[in-house]
Amino acid sequence: MHAGHGHLGGRVMSVLKGMRVVEGSAFVAVPLAGMTLAQMGAEVIRFDRLGGGLDAGRWPLAPNGESLFWAGMNKGKKSIALDMKSPQGRELITRIITAPGEDAGLFLTNLRVRGWMDHETLSQHRPDLVMVTLTGDRHGRPQVDYTVNPALGIPHMTGPADSDAPVAHALPAWDLIAGNMCVSALLAAERHRLRGHGGQEVEIALKDVAAATLGHLGMIGDVTLNTENRGKSGNALYGAYGQDFVCADGRRVMVIGLTDRQWRGICKATGTVEAMTALEQRLGVSLAEEGNRWRFRDDITAILKPWFAQRRVPDFEAAFNDAGLTWSEFRSVREAVELDPDLSTENPIFSEVMQPGIGRFSVPSHPASFGAAERVDARPAPTLGQHTEEILSNVAGCSSTEIAQLFDAGIVQSPSFAKPRNAA
Amino acid sequence: MHAGHGHLGGRVMSVLKGMRVVEGSAFVAVPLAGMTLAQMGAEVIRFDRLGGGLDAGRWPLAPNGESLFWAGMNKGKKSIALDMKSPQGRELITRIITAPGEDAGLFLTNLRVRGWMDHETLSQHRPDLVMVTLTGDRHGRPQVDYTVNPALGIPHMTGPADSDAPVAHALPAWDLIAGNMCVSALLAAERHRLRGHGGQEVEIALKDVAAATLGHLGMIGDVTLNTENRGKSGNALYGAYGQDFVCADGRRVMVIGLTDRQWRGICKATGTVEAMTALEQRLGVSLAEEGNRWRFRDDITAILKPWFAQRRVPDFEAAFNDAGLTWSEFRSVREAVELDPDLSTENPIFSEVMQPGIGRFSVPSHPASFGAAERVDARPAPTLGQHTEEILSNVAGCSSTEIAQLFDAGIVQSPSFAKPRNAA
Fold it and tell me: A single GO molecular function, which one (chains A, B) (predicted)?
């Protein structure tokens, strides 16, 4: 914490303190966007239909069947559950989204609801509304990470070089990227509003995020200008040197020779400087050139492989670290959680949190450390409808009589008034 | 474009118009962050050492050896090249980073330079500086996407179920997520400054981004509370139903049954409603439950596989689209670029751009469409040092005499004054 910054009457505030965002969402990208804003200090209200939205039971699950995915994606949010099919439920959502406040009127969604919940209608209630909508593709067709990724070609460059079969990624990378982009798009549009340019709708298509990213990485130029396709290359680092090796103890490590410094470090640490020089002479190329390290990676690997095969990780671990090499060990998620202090509460971004109905485990806050703003500690996710009454009262401006009527009529729900879950 | 919003004297402005960001970077995350800001309208100045930084020659390359990666990651930026080892070069960089302007004083970096380029020193020149620094891990050790990913366990859940070998992703997903997070962190910190809370340093570690994301996805809770590990499941969608199938024409499709609606859609479109009902009776479970679709995915796939094996993609393509199914075809990047209109200039986010020294190809702008702000069309990347003179004059405030002296002394470089590239 840097003294003298970010204080307001002596109090250090979280970086987005005071902002209010409403989220109508399901799955990865938009829930992640809302949570990221909550983890920077915004008040984030997620609304769901009675019984929960499409991701209410999303895997992974806790032993008791509760969704660990919901718990992960909704940390620190407030939850309201209402009948989104009833006129009263719709009116309440409209009031919540368009409620007054200079730092409110911010709405994130991937629910495709036309008529009452589109930007045109909502902005009649609050003309300076900023609404960020994530769609599947630009035609309005449904797309998920699992369809966008195959359509754009990444699985054909993933996996062992000796197999033709495409390999999809297990990490929903496009969703995660799109979710983070929803955050920056919302902040950019809110900045625009703050400077007097009014509200607006921001539309982002998941497929466009992926397509643009391929372009940014040079992949579109590559297939346009080159005749050869980038194929599969196993776990090798593309374009320079980086390879996985199995060690004498059966453990597998990844070793990086992307920069010249890293490359020289590997050769020195493994005592292969002379062997690499001999290889350069045999091939008539300089391996100081990153492209040559890529082109002749198999020859390089043939030299390094026996070195690793004869050694256990503890035999070289300290020397590699002392030499500042860029390397890591392959671990399962379980091994990482059990063995790596960076995934434990030794790392200030993690804290042990009791998630009601599920149990206690290590939970991350926002990975950024803001030097002049307070860290928002990880907080549990709400249970569905946990804040229904509070939101109806404080945001929608309902009286306690109105709130009681809404519960009685089954328009809203909270854990204490829970109804059976609706079919999807 | 929505009429009436975002105009200033009748002119629609791009969403970050007027903002100036300085970037000292290499590789994926921070260059992507700077470019994303440039694609929303910010003026982004990237500085590099003479001859270019560590990513100046990064693959993929154009046929003439120029870096398509540089071209992709630096679109629309301004470039200045200077001798970062000389006191004069360092002073110029300091002046550029800390130059006056209400919407300036924003610095993005992943260069680990202590002493003259750390936040403490730079903020002496401009106390309200906002500096976002991306590091490898929280200990300051070097980490790249290729080391973070194996360390946290994703490769052990990627690839064919019948193989134990970990499979690394080909997409630098963690870099891409971290880059997008640098954008939102910078915008959040700038918002904080705009509200009178001063500048600050924001530190983000690549490994922390990945570790936090595992937690958000529920994976840390999963291994903490459950005894069984999530293993590899090929291209199957995790936790519900989604599978790839090879068709009669050898083409491969991905079909999604994540939501109940999607699942019923697949069964109906493939005429397998009765077969699935029989399966439910045999297993004694309901496949309306997403977890059961996941647990019994192999049984479901056994029913669907012959249907796809007997049909070519054109046989069912129109029917699947008419039914609103969520599905896609596996393509290579080349096929996607050649066949998919969403990767062509039919999609407003793409335009044909002539990248000097490389050639003409389809280039993406920012994937978001801001309803009340002008789209920033894709612009070529600068050549190294292309804007050296302009930046020295307009930002560093150098006179033309000083600029001439700096070129003569070899402190700065531009394409017209190019020197041979330094060794890395």
Answer: isomerase activity
